Amino acid sequence: MTSRSEQRAIADRLGVRTEACEWCTIDKVPQPPTDVLEAAGNPRLRPGRLRPLGMAGAALAVLFTPLVMLLTLLSNAEEALKRALATKEEKARLQAKDEDDRRRDAITAERGFDHVFDGNWHGGAGQFLLRWYSHSTHHQRLVVATEDGIVLAAPPQRVTTGREKRMEIVARLPAAEAMLMDPFNGEFDTRMVLIRFRDGSWLRLDTEEPRSSLHAYLLRQPLPDN
């Protein structure tokens, strides 16, 4: 979660008054219909390629993949052992969490939140998604909640390190046009945040950590009118 001191530093750098902010990613952008793509000027639909330093890091990650898999297996085994040795109260708590996770996943699929956007390329979210990588080829966005809307910042080009030093504002969405939403209103532990546009279309973002400062901020806001 981004600390208040980090938020103040970010606000000073970007020249905006920050209520909350977090680095977010989006899922893979689906291929639009040909006519939609051509009407938008054939925009870029993928993030920039990794630079040599990033490619070296990716290669090292591949080398460490077997170790990561082993650690994952050990972690899963440890979790299974903890569950087997848990007290009656702990088992009840774990079972309740599992049920919450299943209900969250079911609601996510039912409402279509397992997709990157609502599917309407002609809606506000679809049109904004078409321009996503035209604004910046970086694979992440710093999503900033402000008093009068949403600000998105990122390095103009994809970088492997120093994203905060290189970032600049790449898009602004006034409150009259779009708003941030936690689709579950804090009910579930999730990384998901939506940008909901005035026409009802939405774009899904995922924060780096669950229960981020954006989620905490949204919990303090009044529920939107449907």
Any descriptors?
alpha+beta, 226 residues, 7 strands, globular
What does this entry look like structurally?
This protein is of the alpha+beta class. The longest helix is centred in the middle third of the chain and has 24 residues. The protein is globular and about 60 Å long. The protein starts with a helix and ends in a 7-residue tail after the last helix. The mean pLDDT is 87.
Topology (elements, then pairings):
Blueprint: H1 4-14, E1 18-25, H2 34-39, H3 52-63, H4 65-85, H5 88-111, H6 124-130, H7 132-135, E2 141-146, E3 149-154, H8 163-166, E4 168-174, E5 178-181, E6 192-197, E7 202-207, H9 213-219
Write a short abstract of this structure.
The protein is α+β, with helices and mostly antiparallel strands and 226 residues long. It has helices at residues 4-14, 34-39, 52-63, 65-85, 88-111, 124-130, 132-135, 163-166, 213-219, and strands spanning 18-25, 141-146, 149-154, 168-174, 178-181, 192-197, 202-207.
